[in-house]
Amino acid sequence: MNLKASSARLTTLLVALVLVVGAWSAAQARTHTLTGNARFQIGDGLPLPIGFTPAPNGKVLPIIGATVMQHGVHTASNPAKLVMDPFQWSYDAAGINLGVFGSNMAVFQVHTNLTYMLPKDKIMFQAGGRTGASTVTFCGQSGSTVTAMGNPGCAGGSTGTGLLRYTRTTNQFGGPGNGNVGGSADVALRGNPAVAGGAPCAGPACVIAFYDAGPAPTGAVGAAFMFSNNTVAVVPNPGIFTGTVLANGAIANLGAPGGPGLANNGTSWGGPWTSGMITASAPQALPPELFQLTGADARASGIPGPIFSNAGGTGMLSLVASGFSQRSISGPNANRGWLNMTIGTKTSHVPLMPAYGVAALVALTALSGAYALRRRSRA
Q1: What is the predicted pLDDT for the residue at 19?
Q2: How many domains does the chain have?
Q3: DSSP characters for 337-373?
Q4: 160 and 192 belong to one structural domain
Q5: What is the pTM of this model?
């Protein structure tokens, strides 16, 4: 065999080896470190978990050692699938009061001690994981169900308690992934709404009506289309007081009780996480609410693997989700959520190549090695 033919065969084998190794790298499931934050918000004035840091800055954080797994090569047009095990994010805090009168004229303050664990089940985010058409528009009404096709007569705006619209942008990356919620939420309503002025009410004679707003155990924001939950309120007794309320709605003190509080039953509808654009509105809220938010996928393109060592699949991934709720006393709200992830260093990989691929890889490696030794022995 002449030198040119031998070199050509060796080159062909090496090229085939590179292609097989590339396919192997692309087929791997890769475990990455996970950092970031998550946050939810009801209406314009109540971030959940509540606090004085505005959304979307999160308070629900990945647990120590949290990881995600990615499948396939990541590119902007063909994003890698992302798999997350249950309960990789958590939040547990003592009770916090927050005055919200400036954002919701029907409510003085909210006190919560909520806990969050998400996702509640193993989830996969992927291209097309947010099911349905490129634009899904849903108008909420009593007894409605959010579907992946939306409402046929809902193109122009809300005809009921709220509007939920998902719009595809560069890609439709995402999918459902709701969480578990625990704890309680005590809401102080404005009991004398006829009182005018810049402050909630005057002096120590503000009428304050409490109700329990304990959440449903499974959250609606981030859930699949067609998901809804219901809460049946517990009536606090005593629950009606007079007292002094500050300008932001925070209650300074309470007087003598005047009777049982209120039952504010509610229904919430939700939609899945997406890197696309979401519009959510509740035109009957006080004041009317309209929000628009968009996700982003800034993961680096490329093939991470034992041979290709670039940072493919690492970087920022921000998903958004939305929904709305209707409560019997306080009325509707447009709700939303943010899931901000930084996909970090690859910590391990699991080959997903079938047996014939592994056999081909072994054979090509052996042949290329044999050719190299043969050429060296003849040198």
Answers
A1: 43
A2: 2
A3: EEEEEEEEEEEEEE----HHHHHHHHHHHHHHHHHHH
A4: yes
A5: 0.81
